[in-house]
């Protein structure tokens, strides 16, 4: 019960403390600033140069959203790699987990801090949204849904990356594993992958692999459609990654490292 007499869920103060701690760690070092600068440069570069933004003669952000999954596949594991690996490397994980808060608060706090940085990175592309409104009359609702999909995809990669970061004290190893898993999730539903699998595995297994594709789920948001199954898919990946990160890191309490 708070001082105002309102009910405060168990772990909420610890969650807020971890979010503040992690955001401080990001922004008091060059990490967040370098990440934001890299994203702010790379996202428009893909859209303008690779996606040929001006050659489409369309007032929308389709070139940006088309290349965001490939950018997020690399940058999100880079943002997630320090979450738990750095704690293990510095020997501070035992101190963090000995604080009077549940495991979920520590794990969710780390995720929310990193997801906030990812959200700021996506916000850095908003000038492009303003530009297309100046150039024409885009479907702003569809663009908003596209940004929602990008934020959910970023969250899924972050949650999985943080779970992998809890496995090792080496941030480079955590990054490589995160990129590999993000790559597999992205590529799973592509035709050449399912075509290659269809010749050697049962059809139900090919269909199962195709349904695992984050790129296929993201495509609906990219087209301005927010479907419930796709929302559930991304939120399940996020919940699973955050839970796994907490459980793996929590093994330290029993002597694991």
Share of helix, binned: over 70%
First-to-last CA distance: 35 Å
Which sheet architecture does the biggest sheet show?
none
Parts with pLDDT < 50 across at least 5 consecutive residues: 1-9
Overall mean pLDDT score?
Answer: 84
Helix-and-strand structural type: mainly alpha
What number of structural domains do the residues give?
Answer: 1
Count of discrete alpha- or pi-helical segments spanning 4 or more residues:
13
Instruction: Give the quaternary arrangement of the chains.
Output: single chain
Strand content: under 5%
Helix and strand element order: HHHHHHHHHHHHH
Keywords: Cell membrane, Membrane, Transmembrane, Transmembrane helix
Domain ABC-2 type transporter transmembrane: 64-204
Transmembrane segments: 23-47, 67-85, 111-135, 141-160, 172-193, 231-250
Main location: membrane
């Amino acid at each position: 019960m708070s001082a105002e007499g309102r009910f405060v869920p168990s772990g909420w103060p610890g969650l807020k403390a971890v979010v503040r701690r992690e955001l401080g760690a990001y922004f008091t070092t060059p990490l967040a600033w370098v990440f934001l600068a890299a994203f702010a440069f790379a996202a428009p570069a893909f859209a303008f140069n690779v996606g040929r933004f001006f050659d489409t003669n369309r007032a929308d952000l389709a070139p940006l959203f088309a290349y965001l999954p490939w950018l997020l596949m690399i940058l999100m594991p880079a943002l997630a790699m320090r979450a738990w690996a750095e704690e293990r490397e510095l020997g501070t994980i035992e101190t963090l987990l000995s604080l009077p808060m549940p495991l979920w608060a520590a794990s969710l706090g780390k995720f929310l801090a990193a997801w906030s940085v990812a959200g700021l990175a996506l916000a850095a592309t908003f000038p492009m949204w303003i530009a297309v409104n100046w150039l024409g009359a885009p479907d702003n609702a569809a663009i908003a849904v596209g940004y929602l999909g990008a934020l959910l995809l970023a969250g899924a990669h972050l949650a999985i990356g943080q779970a992998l970061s809890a496995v090792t004290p080496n941030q480079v190893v955590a990054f490589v594993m995160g990129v590999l898993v993000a790559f597999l999730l992205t590529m799973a539903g592509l035709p050449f992958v399912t075509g290659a699998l269809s010749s050697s595995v049962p059809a139900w297994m090919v269909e199962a692999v195709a349904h695992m594709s984050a790129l296929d789920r993201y495509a609906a948001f990219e087209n301005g459609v927010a479907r419930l199954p796709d929302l559930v898919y991304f939120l399940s990946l996020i919940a699973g990654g955050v839970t796994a990160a907490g459980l793996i890191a929590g093994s330290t309490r029993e002597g694991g490292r």
